[in-house]
Amino acid sequence: MRYSGFRLFSEGMTGNRGWRPVWRDPEPKPEYDVIIIGGGGHGLATAYYLAREHGLRNVAVLEKGYLGGGNVGRNTTIVRANYFLPGNSEFYSHSLKLWEGLAQELNFNVMHSQRGLINLFHSDGQRDAFARRGNAMINQGDDAILLDREGVREILPYLDFDNARFPIHGGLYHPRGGTARHDAVAWGYARGADARGVDLVQNCEVTGIDISNGRVTGVQTTRGAIRARKVGIVVAGRSGQVAAMAGMRLPIESHILQAFVTEGLKPVIDHVVSFGMGHFYISQSDKGGLVFGGDLDFHASYAQRGNLPMAEHVMEAGMALMPMIGKARVLRSWGGIMDMTPDGSPIIDRTAIEGLHVNCGWCYGGFKAVPGSGFSFAHLLATGRHHAPAARFRLDRFARGDLIDEEGTGSQHNLH
Prior knowledge:
The structure is a single chain. Helices cover about 30% and strands about 25% of the residues. It has helices spanning about 5-15, 40-55, 90-100, 100-105, 125-140, 150-155, 180-195, 240-245, 310-320, 370-385, 395-400, and strands at about 30-35, 60, 80, 115-120, 145-150, 170-175, 180, 200, 205-210, 215-220, 225-235, 255-265, 270-275, 280-285, 290-300, 330-340, 345-350, 355-360. The strands form 3 sheets. Strands 1, 2, 8, 9, 10, 11, 17 and 18 form an 8-stranded mixed beta sheet that branches. Helix 2 packs parallel to helix 7, helix 2 packs across helix 10 and helix 3 (about 90-100) crosses helix 10 (about 370-385). The chain is globular, with a radius of gyration of 22 Å.
């Protein structure tokens, strides 16, 4: 079914009786060409691009729970391409270009809003660092504008510019940055993959990975054994656990990143704003809630509830930046499981086991990377070659010392 304004009108006039399910609920087949473990944003995008770009339709996505129930539905929805280091900058630039045409391509409203993102700086040293980052972004082909204090005040007049401890000196403005609706992204990719023949199998937990003579042959699940020529692990914070089924130890740790939403308020924050002197970022949703987050909880965990000391820390940073939000009531919070690599950059690569591939280690960057990650991983699975924008996300870079040291927050290097 194709969605359109006419379809909305006609269904409204006929009692909405003509809508069809957005995707099928198939039984798993005995064998597939490719199995994707993980029905989140990255896994669904991979399946979609396998079908659309490479014509592979005998593909299954196996999800332990329901589609989009993991980190793709537990994040602050920020989309940006303001990375600095070669290896990351070209990848996120490619991903942002895919975002910009995603709703039209999927025929599904992912609510991509390029409202602009501003990273604030509070010292001369930060100004120099952001000027350098902005130049790197422009050289990459993306957009960046260095704002002075008055330039920021014109756009964000509600900030505490004269904070005695953290005075605002300016900001780096990324106009094409913004937000999207997290679960709509998962639904759009799921619908697109299903329409091209991909089987999306929910409530199907992978309990083992079958290997014979150094080659993957399939997986064991709670719904029986399924054979496959190739298997892709795309399970975010659970990557270490699933890889262990194949006897692998990945260079990642799993940490909790909390996020928060307030009650609905009148529109006041038009952009995404990031605090330079504390890890705090905020935007306002279409429902009026302030959506914000900050630092990791800084200890390895699989508990998706978060901890109160870090909640207090994040809200202190918010109050230092914009005291006006102090009376807003927080309605809910949640924690996503971040798969953190030692250098803060992801992994998209084949493994030493023939036919077994991994896509993990997205740290803070997972949501904004969904289209690019799916596109690049599908390219690797289908062709056996690395997609150029993701060519440096090799698994062996840690052994070779060829790190993309964006930010190793969270991992303990001595353990890897």
